[in-house]
Amino acid sequence: MTPVRITAIEAILVDLPTIRAHQLAMTVMHRQTLVIVRLLADDGIEGIGEATTIGGLAYGDESPEGMKLAIDTYLAPLLIGQDASNVHAAMQRLEAGARGNRCAKSALETALLDAQARRLDVSLATLLGGAVRTRLPTLWTLASGDTERDIAEAEQLLAERRHDTFKLKIGRRAIADDVRHVTRIKTALGDRARVTVDVNQAWNEADAARAIANLEAAGVDLIEQPLPRDDRAGLARLAARFVVPIMADEALCTPQDAFDLGCRGAADVAALKIAKSGGPYAVLRTAFVADAAGMALYGGTLLEGSVGSIAAAHAFSTLPRLAWGTELFGPLLLTEDIVTERPVYREFCLELPQGPGLGLTLDEDKLAHYRRDKGTAPAAR
Ligand code: MUC
Ligand code: MG
């Protein structure tokens, strides 16, 4: 069989407004910047991918602008002319030629997988071995910064049967204020909803111990990344001390992270994200190690738009165990989209698209409108 050569790779910065301010411990978001990747091969098949992070450099080591630079300057040249139908060989070449940069690599791995699945006329999940679920339970994050507004938002989403699990972003305010905020929301929602909290690394161990005792008493179901990502010993002590499960997020990116956290007993639950791990296939490698180490799995997000969220959904749909469901609600946080058909959320779940590849089509007009380099961008294909 003649190889199919990669002929062009484009990385496009796309700025989309959020439906409301989204407050996290380390930043307040009013918009989200997606890095959309288009990868073309000489058989005419194009694959798309997305690299996205939160708040510039506030969340991780890569910014959207840095990802575009890394792709344009270093990663794309490594791939041009390579066999587009061999995703593992292409990704191995990137690994050998560029350290780290897992978010940027995730967009490229997604685009390669999307193109190859389209080429074979199968879905991305099928290419990854097959979906064991086509509906993924998806929570919603309450992060308006206002307790009563958060309760009203949760009540509406429960009534619409869109979400029945809510993650509260805390760690920005004093601990006593955070505990009051969470307790008020959990009391209002009662047994009708699960409530989890994400501290985004904001506490030290002593503060975390005090806060978690109160949150556990308030009926919180899960505590996400209470300590800085490097404090694995502290995380292990918290996991041993409390019954409420502790989830590793920022601390867990690679299979090696999963192995080390597992050996330490540092986390009960593993937050998986394609962007942290380097792509839909890469996240599965991390997931299998975490699973083998006895951690329950959770399908996380870096608040990607539709392309990144659906890529993650395809990967998570193949996992035999996904005890904590997902948080792939990113597209719902954005007022606009750059795909022709937006992902469907129904009965507390995200539905996996069924078409070839990701099952998504870029909306060229929307993309042209929201791309940051509008006016100077190359003409649409
Ligand atoms: C994170 O740290 O988990 C996921 C949901 C959300 O609101 O923020 C993200 C990031
Ligand atoms: Mg988190």
- Label the overall shape: globular
| Mean pLDDT across every amino acid position | 97
The total number of structural domains is 2
Query: Which kinds of small molecule does this entry bind, naming each only once?
Result: [(2S)-5-oxo-2,5-dihydrofuran-2-yl]acetic acid, magnesium ion
Query: Helix and strand string, N-terminal first?
Result: EEEHHHHEEHEHEHEHEHEHHEHHEEH
Within CATH, the superfamily of the largest domain carries the name Enolase-like C-terminal domain
- What's the main sheet like? 7 strands, parallel
Total of DSSP H or I helical runs spanning 4+ residues: 14
Estimated structural class = alpha/beta
Quaternary state reads single chain
Strand order of the largest sheet: 5-6-7-8-9-10-11
Structure, explained:
The chain is of the alpha/beta class. The protein folds into 2 domains: 6-121 and 361-370, Enolase-like, domain 1 (2-Layer Sandwich), CATH 3.30.390; 127-351, TIM Barrel (Alpha-Beta Barrel). Helix content is 40%, strand content 19%. It contains 14 helices and 13 strands. The protein has helices at residues 64-79, 87-97, 102-120, 124-127, 147-159, 175-189, 205-217, 232-241, 255-264, 274-277, 280-292, 306-317, 330-333, 364-370; strands at 6-23, 28-41, 46-52, 135-137, 140-142, 165-169, 194-198, 222-224, 246-248, 269-272, 296-299, 345-346, 349-351. Strands 5-6-7-8-9-10-11 form a 7-stranded parallel beta sheet. A 3-stranded antiparallel beta sheet has the order 1-2-3. Helix 9 links the parallel strand 9 and strand 10 (269-272). The protein is globular and about 60 Å long. The protein starts with 5 loop residues before the first strand and ends in an 11-residue tail after the last helix. The chain binds [(2S)-5-oxo-2,5-dihydrofuran-2-yl]acetic acid (MUC) and magnesium ion. [(2S)-5-oxo-2,5-dihydrofuran-2-yl]acetic acid (MUC) is lined by residues 54, 141, 143, 169, 198, 200, 249, 300-301, 303, 327.
